[in-house]
Amino acid sequence: MGICYNKLWKLLIDKNMNKTDLKETAGISFNVLARMGKNEPISFESMEKICTTLNCDIGDIIEIEKPMNMDNNRTGFTTIELFAGAGGLALGIEKAGFDTIGLIEFDKDAAETLKVNRPNWRVIHDDVANISCLNLEEYFGIKAGELDLLSGGAPCQAFSYAGKRLGLEDARGTLFYHYATFLQKLQPKMFLFENVRGLLTHDKGRTYATITSIFEQAGYSIQKQVLNAWDYGNPQKRERLITIGIRNDLLEKVHYQFPKPRDYKPILRDVLLDCPDGPGVQYGEKKRKIFELVPPGGYWRDINPVIAKEYMKSCWDMEGGRTGILRRMSLDEPSLTVLTSPSQKQTERCHPLEARPFTVRENARCQSFPDDWEFCGNVSSQYKQVGNAVPVNLAYDIAKEIHKALEAIK
C-alpha cells in the first residue's frame, strides 16, 4: 500500500503552478516537497497548508495505491504495531499466532532490523504523525472494526488539562495522541498498550488517568497489570505496565485474563554459558582492574573502601544504597533490567565471569530474542534497540492470552 500525489501534480498544472510555487505559497519546506516527490506520507499540518492554498480537499491531492500482492485472504488474527522498535513485542505476538500487517518505526536502524529479520512484514519507516493523519482503512487495506489487535507503547509524556473530561485533544502534541488516533479510526477488537511501570505515577498519576479516559471514550473497557518479565521466561527483572483494551460491543463474548507466571524463573546461568559471540564494548583498563576485585553478585561495598571511594567520587556521599555502582552480576540470579547503554556508572551490570559489560547478544538473550535475530546499525544503536525492547517471552505470554480471548468470536 503506497501514497501517490499524482492528483496534486495534475492540479498544479491546471492552476498553472509548479512545485516551487507551491512550496512558497503554501509555506511548506523543501523536505516536505521532497517527500511528496518520493510518494512518502507528509504531516496533516502540511496537507492542510496545501489544501488551503489550492482551495481543495485532501482527497483532491492524495490517493492511496494498493499493491497487486496485497493479501485479502488472511486466515489468522491481524495486528498492527506502532513504535515497533527492534521487534521484541512484534516477535512475541507473531509467535502467539497473529499475522502482522503493519509496523511503524521512526528509528532507521530499528526499522532496518525489522526488515532484515522479517522481509514479509510491512515495515513503515516513518514518523507515526505522517501516518495517523491518513485514511488508515485504505492505507492498511482493512475496514474499521476488522483489525483484531493494535499494539505498541508510546513514550511517556505529560498532557495538557483543558477540561474536566479529558479527551483526545488533551493528548495532542504527544506520541500517545497518534496511538489513540489509530484506535479511534480503526476500532480494533482489542488493543495492547505497554509502558514502563512509572507511567502509573507520572505527573502524579494524571498522565495515565488521561490515557485511560481516552481509551474509554474510544469505546473500550480496559484492564491493567504490572508484569515482571522474570515471571515469564526471561532471565531478567523488568517490570512493564500492560494495559489491555476490549471493544465494548464485544464484552459479552471476549474475556481476557493476564498470563499466569511460569513455573520456572530462569537465571543468567541458563543463557550466558553457551551464548554466541556478538558485538560489545570493553571497560577501560583502570575500570576493568577495579571490577576484577568485585565478586560475582557483589558491588562497591565488597571491595576496599579506599578504592571504592576514589572510583565513586561524588557518588560516595550520596544517600541510599547505590547498589547499581560497581555492580557485578551472578550466574545464579536474573539480570537487572537490560539498559540502552552498556556502561552507566549508577546502573552498571558487569558480566559474572569476566570484567566487562554484557555483549549485545548476551543482552538479547536476557530479552529472550532468538540467536538468529540480527540487529542493524553500530554497536551503540544495537545496545539501544535491545535495551528498549519488550522481552519476547513476556510479549508471547501476553499475546497468547489475547489470541485465546479472540477465539470466542472467530
TrEMBL record:
Enzyme Commission number: 2.1.1.37
Catalyses which reaction(s): a 2'-deoxycytidine in DNA + S-adenosyl-L-methionine = a 5-methyl-2'-deoxycytidine in DNA + S-adenosyl-L-homocysteine + H(+)
CDD domains: Cyt_C5_DNA_methylase, HTH_XRE
Enzyme category, top tier: transferase
Keyword S-adenosyl-L-methionine tagged: yes
Keyword Transferase: yes
HTH cro/C1-type domain: residues covered: 7-66
Name of the protein this chain belongs to: Cytosine-specific methyltransferase
